[in-house]
Write a structure and sequence with these properties.
This protein is mainly beta. It has an eight-stranded antiparallel barrel with strand order 1-2-3-4-5-6-7-9. Strand 2 and strand 3 form a beta hairpin. The radius of gyration is 20 Å and the shape is elongated. 18% of the residues are buried.
């Protein structure tokens, strides 16, 4: 289990061609790794054997009653955001009112993605993970048939009228698990209409975009624990 070649393969599975070398310092924090095992343990990464989940709650005011103008109902709205990373560089994101026990099953089958799920690719830069996503209802020909090295340029469908979601998340830790938290740092919506791009940046308040926390999912282990080679 201490064989360095095994740990090197594990690092390649996580960071792909951007893995770097042991004697090169990390530009983000000047970290030096003394072995491939040391890199795998201490370097920021995303977990594959589960899902990152956040819960958002807010109050929505209803319409005044016709019979009593002083009565106005208040609705408590709750929804969850799910992000699942895979070893081949793909990522899925879904927003749903379903509880986690039901929500994680909707992004379990990576070969039959639901229309309400955003899909795309991600890359790691130090303690930051960058996501490029789009609606899964569009043609999946490009992603489905182009084989890409992990961490390479993210291919998405070419469409003259497309919508993409550009997201940056900072990787954090919990007392019991490393890399268990994702904190929002940037979120931009890019709409392409007739070859003209229009971007809109979201206001990332803690109330609307709380941190996502990792939760293991047993049914994901088949993909997460695939052979290293």
């Amino acid at each position: 289990a201490r064989d360095e070649e095994l740990w090197r393969l594990a690092c390649v599975k996580v960071w792909g061609h951007s893995i770097g070398t042991l004697d090169a310092q990390d530009a983000e924090n000047s970290t030096v790794y003394y072995s491939w095992r040391d890199m795998f343990i201490r370097r920021e990464r995303v977990n594959f054997s589960g899902c990152y989940i956040s819960k958002t709650t807010y109050l929505r005011m209803g319409e005044n009653s016709f019979q009593d103008q002083f009565y106005r109902p208040v609705q408590l709205v709750e929804y969850y955001r799910y992000i699942r990373f895979m070893p081949d560089g793909k990522v899925l994101m879904m927003t749903s009112a379903d509880e986690p026990s039901q929500g994680v099953t909707k992004i379990r089958n990576v070969h039959n993605i639901r229309p309400d799920v955003l899909r795309g690719r991600y890359r790691l830069f130090g303690d930051t993970v960058t996501l490029v996503l789009q609606k899964s209802s569009q043609s999946r020909a490009t992603i489905g048939h182009v084989r890409q090295r992990r961490g390479s340029v993210m291919p998405l469908d070419e469409d003259s009228n497309a919508t993409q979601f550009l997201i940056e998340l900072r990787i954090g830790h919990s007392p019991k698990r490393r890399c268990a938290q994702l904190v929002w740092s940037h979120y931009t919506l890019v709409q392409k209409r007739n070859k003209v791009d229009t971007s809109s940046e979201f206001d990332l308040t803690d109330a609307k975009y709380p941190s996502l926390w990792f939760s293991p999912v047993k049914s994901y282990h088949l993909d997460a624990d695939a052979p290293l080679v």
